[in-house]
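Worked Example 4.2. Read the sequence first, then its structure tokens.
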Amino acid sequence: MRIAVTGSIATDHLMTFPGRFADQLVADQLHTVSLSFLVDNLDVRRGGVAANICFGMGLLGTAPILVGAAGSDFDEYRAWLDRHGVDTGSVRISEVLHTARFVCTTDADHNQIGSFYTGAMSEARLIELKAVADRVGGLDLVSIGADDPEGMLRHTEECRSRGIPFAADFSQQIARMDGDEIRILLDGATYLFSNEYEKGLIESKTGWTDAEILSKVGHRVTTLGAQGVRIECAGEEPIEVGCPEENAKADPTGVGDAFRAGFLSGLAWGVGLERAAQVGCMLATLVIETVGTQEYTLHRTRFMDRFTKAYGHEAAAEVRTHLA
């Protein structure tokens, strides 16, 4: 199964604030916030939602195709992804812009404040999926993640016109999109990804109820933080999957991307939605135990031991035969 993942490619500058953001906010002054946080640590990491997802899929051996735009400073990042099983042959390199950059501060309660510089990501709108499909011999699914908004719309429309199944995954871009854009991006999606807060925001902006949205997508996949994930399909009982036990909680950045990487890999293996969600939750657990979005490692035996403990021997037997 050939899965292309479109979305941002970026570097992450991650900082840690030892206090609580909430303690610094004055209720009657929120209209004129001016704050500076003295942070303890700075980690510069590889990131971007599409690159993060592809990295996880590469570790699982499912050979994802990364589709996005980066700057001329991408060479080292490309080599890293290539070494970890990602097909980077469809990444567009800008001649004038730097690779996108995410700057984020996390407080003691794991709340986050971040800013994102788009840079070369704005050229994602120039990428044609037909060229990608021709290069790799066709596409079975395209996951359309947070990216240049015009690029997201172009990729969605092209998937519809060419009959390519697609997953809608707006994440960070929901905040800047209006209801009309969101309606276009989700209508007809095989999968709709969001967290619980984004789920409510999608309903609020589109004016569609949960039932109406379910009637327009194949499956709605909602991540629930520490409670795991819920998968819904119109006319069927929801599938709910919990998270494995964490060894530590180091950094929540990239946990949602890791879930998607595991879930999409499960789809590529053909193990079914529940198993795919379990793989996603297991991979997400590895990420929350690590600082950075692509700094974790996947040791097959350890992964399967923890997976078996969380989900049982029957589930593990289905997954073990596919894990690279």
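Now turn to a second chain, presented in exactly the same format:
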Amino acid sequence: MTTTPAPDQPAAESEQERWLTPGVRGIGSASLLADVGHEIPTALLPSLLNSTIGAPAAALGAIEGVSDALAGAARFGGGVLADDPVRRRTVAVGGYATTAVLGAAIGGATAVWQVGVLRAAAWTARGLRVPARNALLADIVPAKAYGRAYGFERMMDNLGAIFGPLLALGLVAWLGVQWAIGLSVIPGLLAAAAIVYAIRHTPRPTSRDKVPLRIRVRPVLHGELGRLMGAVAAFEVGNVAATLLILRATELLTPDHGAKTATTIALGLYTAYNVAATLASVPAGRLADRLGARGPLLVLAAGVAAFAAAYGLFAFSGAVVTVLAIPFLLAGVGIGAVETAQHSAVAALAPKDLRGSAFGLLATVQSLGNLAASAIAGILWSAVSPAAAFTYLTAWMLLAFGGLLTIARR
């Protein structure tokens, strides 16, 4: 006896097939594998510098600061390159492959300067590929499915952030720090292969003429897209590095639990943050698609509101693990919603010929904003109090929230 499918079942399957294409799956797999690949050297870099090479802690700070700055600049340049549909394919493949090779080569470094050069070069390649990947994803899905597609990519990226450090721990126990870093080339090169797979399932550009390389900022800042960038900038200036959330939890828990236990609990809460971000990404994208043209803006505003609530709790919460879990989860849901909605909103608002530049400018705003947020919050933390730092961050979140609601009403 055969069962007749529900009337809406074929339509639901057809809708799923339209956005979760081989190209989308390829880009999502690349994000997962690449994040696993670069999280291994990231997690093991302090141990390599301190225990193996014998470098001071200041060396780690300098290397990471220079690498992050170069990555931010490279994202802007990568946006210019990604305006050309042909060139963006080359940049995406080359960026993934180069990041994998240079990051893994850190395992063979014997001096601080070698680690610094390799890390900076790897992060530059990583920055170049980001706008190209985001523009490629917009090429292969219909506009009404941007939310789900970018939510899927963010989910896979967050999964990589969870599995990468766990794999690093296993490899260190088995082979040691240097071999573990060296083997990170395997998932990194698999990520490059996944991008090649995605490109093979992407329609070829119709024009063979190369787009001239031009820095185009003013057209990107025109109209609704410019107003969106302003609201995103307000959010990013208040979007502090997750390490400060870990530090806040550690400081609150240390008097009752001791330093070692407090650190372990804080890292567990950070894992919960990453899990929440992973689980929130696709539902946030699906909601953005269902709400129509204003959907990405409304989802983005909701994510910003979750951050505002989280930072408010970080400012005044006590040393209770279950209470501290709430702002970590709120921030995780917030970042899952925000990253998905930012990408889908830019894809929807940017003209097709400026899509690369728009994603490059978005990535640059994110990098510079995060740097400013962490630096100013750190100063307030030391000079005044942690509560003052998180109150400052909450104020930026409320400003961004108001701006996004204003744009959505227009």
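Notes for the reader: Confidence is low (pLDDT under 50) at residues 1-13. The two ends are 55 Å apart (CA to CA).
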